[in-house]
Amino acid sequence: MKENAGNPLHLTSLNHVSLLCRSVDESMNFYHKVLGFIPIRRPESLNFEGAWLFGHGIGIHLLRSPEPEKLPKKTAINPKDNHISFQCESMGAVEKKLEDMEIEYVRSLVEEGGIQVDQLFFHDPDGFMIEICNCDSLPVVPLVGGMARSCSRVKLHQMVQPQPQTHVHQVVHP
């Protein structure tokens, strides 16, 4: 393996997000019907209740909590809380679907340099927050060097700039 200072673990992508849930069936139904994830086969060697779903390039692994009564209860929707975010093509279509399914949500707007990003936040059945956004319009700009790119076009190796080589030149005077 070639050493890569900007990606020392040689990561390529996010594989899955694992979530504890009270009811595997209820959560599976939510991720399938609301977000379009498809249930997939789960290894039979996993000897606990759960389900795997796949969509949008990542997996959702649902694990039934051994103590579902101890999972935190749903609270007010707070965009500053832990969440996973999905990019979408049409905020209007997402908002309509959430309204049709009677899912409570909060709308937020981020403005930067004349660019506006719409965000919708809502909870899954266990209170885990989900964001849907059109964040691709906001450029990803490295803090040091590099060029602005949209989220969908960023690759880690493109963001990492080669470190300048420092050469010491020794001048020897006779």
From TrEMBL:
The cross-references to PROSITE patterns, in alphabetical order and at most eight, read: VOC (PS51819)
Q: Which InterPro entries match?
A: Glyas_Bleomycin-R_OHBP_Dase, Glyas_Fos-R_dOase_dom, VOC_core
* A Pfam family: Glyoxalase
In this chain the VOC domain maps to 13-135
Quote the PANTHER family the UniProt record gives: GLYOXYLASE I 4 (PTHR46142:SF11), PTHR46142
Protein name, as recorded: VOC domain-containing protein
Please report the organism this UniProt entry assigns to the protein.
Answer: Capsella rubella
